[in-house]
Amino acid sequence: MPLNILVVDDSSVTRAMIIKTLKIIGLPLGEIYQAANGLEGIEALEENWVDIALVDVNMPIMNGEEMLRQLRETPEGKNLPVIMVSTEGSQTRIESLQEQGAKFVHKPFAPEAIRQAIVEITGISYEPTSTESDTDF
Predict the structure, then answer these.
(1) Neighbours of 28 (CB within 10 A)
(2) Nearest Cα to Cα of residue 101 among 61, 44, 53
(3) Residue 72's CATH number
(4) pLDDT tens-digit profile, the chain (137 residues)
(5) Containing domain of residue 20, as a range?
């Protein structure tokens, strides 16, 4: 079953790196949607079926923590698998995000960290591809 994925980050370069990572890690991909902040992310979720969201924490307009909180208050977003991909260093903030059901991956990240977080949070299995790399992004 292909996964429809939403990537939310205020950096277009980071979104491109995450999307490139998603393409090389060997998981079945459907549509990949992008948003530059949490508000755009919420709007994308209202317009599209998404199986998992990868969200930055520190963004303008609406940060990832606010987006996650708002998501968890809706029937559609209550159980949506969310992976926070961020440079966030506050252990208190990270624990708060995890208490809301999000996985956390630190930037810079290895492709394997993204793959492992997706496998853990969705339960999906995968077949590694020959293009997988150990490069940090």
Answers:
(1) 11
(2) 53
(3) 3.40.50.2300
(4) 799 999 999 999 999 999 999 999 988 999 999 999 999 999 999 999 999 999 999 999 999 999 999 999 988 889 999 999 999 888 999 999 999 999 999 999 999 999 999 999 988 865 554 444 444 44
(5) 3-122
